[in-house]
Amino acid sequence: MMFWYAKSVIIGDFLEKGKTITGQYYSELLYCFDKKLEETRPHLMRKKVLLHQDDAPAHSSGVVAAKLHELHYEVQMLQLSLLLGVLHSSVAFVTSQ
């Protein structure tokens, strides 16, 4: 999974082969992303964080919903068919004012 904005990647995570992304794993990744964003790009913390994600089970779990609420992040659902050639679920990070 990659978390990024228009200028660069904030954090990337590559899961070991054969492992599954669970709600707990994704929730912890969101926490790490938030801390990395605060540490490396504090000016972006004042902007709205919008996550684009698909409807993978890990993305829609209760654990993740609680973490997104805690971090004040908004979610925009994407259809995999719109990802044009990307065969796996991904998360992209953008900010808007």
Automatic annotation (TrEMBL):
Domain of life: Eukaryota
GO MF, any single term: nucleic acid binding
InterPro entries in alphabetical order: RNaseH_sf, Transposase-MT_Hybrid, Transposase_1
Any single Pfam family the record assigns to this protein: Transposase_1
Gene3D superfamilies attached to this UniProt entry: Ribonuclease H-like superfamily/Ribonuclease H
Descriptive protein name: Transposase
Origin species: Acanthoscelides obtectus
